[in-house]
Amino acid sequence: MYAEERQQEILRIARDVGRVEVAGLADGLNVTSETIRRDLTILERAGVLRRVHGGAIPVERLGFEPALAARDAVLIEEKERIAKLALSEVPEEGAIILDAGTTTARLAQLLPVDRELTVVVNSPVIAATLGTYANLNVLLLGGRVRGKTLATVDDWALSPLADLYVDVAFVGTNGISVERGLTTPDPSEAAVKRAMVRAARRTVVLADHTKLGNDYLARFAELADVDLLITDSRADRDLVGDLESANVRVVRG
After folding, report:
1. Of 4, 100, 161, 194, whose CB has the highest number of CB atoms within 10 Å?
2. Residue 204: beta bridge partners?
3. What is the pLDDT of residue 214?
4. Which residues have a Cβ under 8 Å from the Cβ of 16 and sit 6 or more positions away?
């Protein structure tokens, strides 16, 4: 197993179990404790784990928000599968919203070149990706660019959304639970996401399995606002069942 593969496995275990121990990882992965400690240091520097005595905890459990580059480097295959499933929700023509995020960015890369669409985005990164597509009319929401996610927020982003009405909003989330709905750590991003949901006829949430069951500071939507949740095949069956019992339609890929 290469170092990168081992680190991805460590991150997977940490997110599935809630924490990892150095000794247990060393035995399970058949490497030395020193190797595991180096791996944990690398993962902490990437912003996805936080070292604790004897092991590490995923940042999601601590309420921290990893930076965009760190989030983009994990769960790559899962995000790509989610994006491919989301393609079937893109209309043949009309208007959509693409929220800033690593999974929505993958959907942006997959948008077909034979459809006439208006795409509203609050991510300069996604706007740059789509700006060269001749068939797309790309509208970039202005505002303050938030460093961690490179999303535009605050009034300059919110004001245009109040007067827009699109066919589908593709929205990311840091957490989704029966108890709290859809949540994210930053209130300014929550406000933009909330406005996106209100501006759409349908809301499709793109969230990998690590987001299910998590809650964060700022709520931006109720479960009743969600028309479809697309997640990956590693999503916990009990958590999916709870969401479906709350009348959320869930697709796992």
Report:
1. 100
2. 170, 228
3. 86
4. none
Helix, strand and coil content of the chain, in percent to the nearest 5, comes to: 45, 25, 30
Asked whether residue 232 carries a pLDDT value surpassing 50, the answer given is yes
71 by Cβ neighbours in 10 Å (0-12 / 13-18 / 19+) ranks as: buried
Is-contact 65 186, C-beta < 8 A? Answer: yes
Give the Cα separation of 170 and 228 in Å (integer): 10
Q: What is residue 150's DSSP assignment?
A: T
**253 burial via Cβ count (<10 Å: 0-12, 13-18, 19+):** middle
Neighbours of 48 (CB within 10 A): 26
- What is d(CA 217, CA 111) in angstroms, rounded to the nearest whole number? 32
Q: What b-and-e string marks burial along 112-136, b requiring 16 or more CB atoms within 10 Å of the CB?
A: eeeeebbbbbbbbbbbebbeebeeb
Q: What is the pLDDT of residues 200-230, one digit of tens each?
A: 999 999 999 889 988 888 999 999 999 999 9
- The helix or strand, by DSSP H or E, that contains position 78, with its residue range, turns out to be helix 76-86
Reported for 242-251, long-range contacts at CB under 8 A and 24+ positions apart, including other chains, are 242/178, 243/176, 243/178, 243/212, 245/178, 246/178, 247/223, 248/223, 251/85
Q: Which residue has the tokens 């998590």?
A: 214
pLDDT at residue number 59: 75
Q: At residue 83, what is the residue type?
A: A
Q: Residue 212 corresponds to which tokens in the numbers above?
A: 């299910």
- Backbone Cα Rg of the chain: 19
pTM: 0.74
